[in-house]
């Protein structure tokens, strides 16, 4: 079994394997092009992302700079927005739903280096997938670690470190990130304070 197969099967693998290094370099070359295009060149920028990602939905907008490891493990839904300095280390699958907003300086990390120093020195690591549901807002400077799932409609507060799964329909924040409360109908802006007669 190749090191790439081990990586994709969530087994321990050596990250400095020749095939994996070449695939990361391919991604870095595409990212160099992407990050150096003028922001107004949206079509050209999106063409590069389509080459890079496994799949991406309609109306995606990714600000520069953006960084990832391989790209081919990233699946993104419709109406995705990622602000500046988004980093996705996609050694395992990263699945992002529809209508997801990502603030500046957000990092999604799928790899874990070996705990044993000798094994870590040899390049052993293991990667676990990250899943983000529909309609999620991840605020600025959030870090999401390997193996985490975030449920639909949830908000992650700025500066949080998400180390465990977060359920749907909640506001969560902190280091480590914890559920603060559920999102309710009382959170709707609706017509409150708009001067409506209703």
Based on CA atoms alone, the radius of gyration comes out at 18 Å
Category by helix and strand content: alpha/beta
Distance between the termini: 65 Å
Name the strands of the widest sheet in spatial order. Answer: 3-6-9-14-17-19-20
Structural shape: globular
Low-pLDDT runs of 5+ residues are: none
The number of E-state strands comes to 20
Strand/helix succession? HEHHEEEEEEEEEEHEEEEEEEEE
Helical residues, percent: 10-25%
**Main β-sheet: number of strands, strand sense, barrel status?**
7 strands, mixed
Quick check: average pLDDT?
Answer: 95
| Count of DSSP-assigned helices | 4
Query: Could you tell me the strand content as a percent range?
Result: 25-35%
Written overview of the protein:
The chain is α/β, with parallel strands linked by helices. It is 21% helix and 28% strand. It is built from four helices and 20 strands. The chain has helices spanning 3-8, 18-36, 42-52, 117-121, and strands at residues 13-14, 55-56, 61-62, 66-68, 74-76, 81-82, 86-89, 94-96, 101-102, 107-109, 111-113, 124-127, 130-132, 137-138, 143-144, 149-150, 155-156, 161-162, 170-173, 178-182. Strands 3-6-9-14-17-19-20 form a seven-stranded mixed β-sheet, with no helix packed on it. A five-stranded parallel β-sheet has the order 2-5-8-13-16, with helices on one face. Strands 4-7-10-15-18 form a five-stranded parallel β-sheet. The termini are far apart.
């Amino acid at each position: 079994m190749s090191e790439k197969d081990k990586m994709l099967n969530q087994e321990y693998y050596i990250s400095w394997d020749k095939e994996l290094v070449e695939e990361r370099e391919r991604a870095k070359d595409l990212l160099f092009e992407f990050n150096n295009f003028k922001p107004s060149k949206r079509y050209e920028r999106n063409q590069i992302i389509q080459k890079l990602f496994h799949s991406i939905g309609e109306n995606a907008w990714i600000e520069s700079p953006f960084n990832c490891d391989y790209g081919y493990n990233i699946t993104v839904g419709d109406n995705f927005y990622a602000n500046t300095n988004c980093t996705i280390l996609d050694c395992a699958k990263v699945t992002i739903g529809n209508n997801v907003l990502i603030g500046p300086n957000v990092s999604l990390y799928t790899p874990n280096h070996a705990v044993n120093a000798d094994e870590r020195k040899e390049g052993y690591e293991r990667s676990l997938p990250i899943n983000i549901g529909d309609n999620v807002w991840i605020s600025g400077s959030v870090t999401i670690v390997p193996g985490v799932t975030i449920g639909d409609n949830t908000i992650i507060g700025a500066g949080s470190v998400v180390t465990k799964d977060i359920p749907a329909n909640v506001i969560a924040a902190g280091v480590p990130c914890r559920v603060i409360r559920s999102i309710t109908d009382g959170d709707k802006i609706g017509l409150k304070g708009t001067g409506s007669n209703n």
